[in-house]
Amino acid sequence: MLASFRKAYEEKLSNNGLSTTTTTTRDFLRDTALSLMFAGRDTTSTCLTWLFWLIATNPSTETKILEEIETEFKKWRVFGVEESRRLIYLHGALCESLRLFPPVALEHKAPIEPDNLPSGEYVKSNAKVIVSFYSTGRMESVWGKDCLEFKPERWISASGGIKHEPSYKFPAFNAGPRTCLGKEMAFAQMKMVAATIIYRYKIELLEGGGYPVVSPRDSIILQAKHGLKVRLSRRNY
Questions:
Q1: Which of 121, 148, 164, 180 has its CB surrounded by the most CB atoms within 10 Å?
Q2: How would you classify the pairing of strands 201-205 and 129-132?
């Protein structure tokens, strides 16, 4: 992705009659990388929070993630972006977390000119249209009768690869020309963090008995209202 940014940056300078140097290109790539990482800080951490909650309340998925890690990496080690792509089931679990608890739960749009929605609804210019990604991910008409279930398997194709869904059906990273530029980077970061924690620690949810019930916060970012209280127990390998 950074290679694409670099190419576009150099082409833009060239078209404007400007030359590039190693220093200016390096500074541009550094600033771009930092922007992508900081822009996704809250959304990435929110997705991981809900992932750990979903896994803690669905123990069978934790077992399958561990089996996948042990199968793909015979001996645990730090892995990179290319290797993270081999964790198909974990990818599906992250997609389910994003479907059920999209970090940005609402999106609003405003047409420049009057328009008609596919439903036939007339929309005036500059009218605010609120799109609920949270509701879309839980609609039976979109995801089927098991729409409220946490099923990473729904993201795995018959051939065992990642099953891709249209962005207008799965808008966690927005859709169309406004699709999040850091999507692939976010998946790579989340897989590295999630795989490391799940492999090394057993996650026990602390809920009830004096601990607050985990529920979404009413905010721009769909964080857990009281955070996620857990007990981590180191696994014996």
A1: 180
A2: unpaired
Confidence of residue 31 (pLDDT cuts 50, 70, 90): confident
Tokens matching residue 58: 């669905």
- Residue 108's contacts (CB-CB under 8 Å, 6 or more residues apart) are 128, 129, 130, 131
pTM (two decimals)? 0.82
Segment 52-76, tens digit of pLDDT = 999 999 999 999 999 999 888 877 6
Q: What is the pLDDT of residue 76?
A: 66
Three-state DSSP at 49 gives helix
Burial zone of 141 (CB within 10 Å; 0-12 exposed, 13-18 middle, 19+ buried): exposed
Distance between CA atoms of 150 and 147, rounded to whole angstroms? Answer: 8
Residue corresponding to tokens 């799109």: 131
CA pair distance 82, 75, nearest whole angstrom: 17
The three-state secondary structure class of 173 is helix
Task: Give the closest residue to 133 by CA, choosing from 99, 97, 178.
Answer: 99
Dihedral sign (CA 88, 68, 61, 102): negative
